[in-house]
Amino acid sequence: MTLNYLTLYHSGELLERVRAAYGRLAACDICPHDCGVNRLRGELGICGAGAHPAIASANVHNGEEPPISGSRGSGTIFLTGCSLKCRFCQNFPISQMGNGEVITTKVLADRMLKLQQRGVHNINLVTPTHYVPQILAALYLAIPLGFRLPLVWNSSGYEKVDALALLDGVVDVFLPDMKYADNGTAERISSAPGYADINRSAVAEMLRQVGHLELDDEGLAVKGLIIRHLVLPGGLAETRKTLSWIAGNLGTATHISLMRQYFPAHLAVGMPVLGRKLTDDEYDEALEALEEFDLDNGWVQD
């Protein structure tokens, strides 16, 4: 397996990216909110993160898509905070209430190495967008200690192309959400202005960096893009529009994980539309759209 981040490390490029990424924290513009706060001095933006990484857990996870979990599991690190404020977030204690432990980048590197020792197939960074500098720094510290696993970027997809450029050759598998096709809906439900346009530019950049999904002889993800789309009740996700855009702009070879596990959580409880579960008919319509646009690669849920 070729790990491009080793080349970046030995050339000195990875260290330069660590420095460039940390420089952006002085007036933070890592995510599309462009909060402008000085995180290096402990100021907090919308994501709730400061200068140091914070994690809620680092453990072996077997519930991801088959090429990610494999037979030995994915080394999943849940990072605290988020640049979105989804009213229905099922992980809201971590993403919005700040549950987690503030650690150093050295400790984050140690957690990655310990997961590697447990035999996981990859390191799966969940909600990592606001920690680009800290993750790059942790990788830089882990490599000379023997870290050699693929990195999975498991994100909301609300990301800037110039921030993603710092990950070119670092991330092996991008696993972004494509949540909404309408900017107004995204802002109303997830406090994410311009989400649809920003998200589409982001996933196009991810595809440019890693290409379509590639598997090894064991069926494990070596590199590539997997898009997750959560079907929402009442058509709020506008699934058909998103799938049509994927087929037309990324290609029908794109791997899609079409998820139906929505249930009302956090602020969605009691809300109109969001306050109910997804119906079988609603998910069936999403499945029909997959077929209509010849998107045959990926996974659906029973």
UniProtKB/TrEMBL annotation:
Name the UniProt key words of this record, in alphabetical order.
Iron, Iron-sulfur, Metal-binding, S-adenosyl-L-methionine
- Gene Ontology MF term list: catalytic activity; iron-sulfur cluster binding; metal ion binding
Q: Which Pfam families match?
A: Fer4_12
Cofactor binding description = Binds 1 [4Fe-4S] cluster. The cluster is coordinated with 3 cysteines and an exchangeable S-adenosyl-L-methionine.
Cofactors named for this entry: [4Fe-4S] cluster
Q: Does the keyword S-adenosyl-L-methionine apply?
A: yes
Which sites bind [4Fe-4S] cluster? Answer: 82, 86, 89
Q: Known InterPro entries for this protein?
A: Aldolase_TIM (IPR013785), MJ0674-like (IPR040085), Pyrv-formate_lyase-activ_prd (IPR016431), rSAM (IPR007197)
Q: Is S-adenosyl-L-methionine tagged as a keyword?
A: yes
PANTHER family the UniProt entry points to: FORMATE LYASE ACTIVATING ENZYME, PUTATIVE (AFU_ORTHOLOGUE AFUA_2G15630)-RELATED
Name the record gives this protein: Radical SAM protein
Question: What is the organism field in this record?
Answer: Oryzomonas rubra
Higher taxonomy: Bacteria, Pseudomonadati, Thermodesulfobacteriota, Desulfuromonadia, Geobacterales
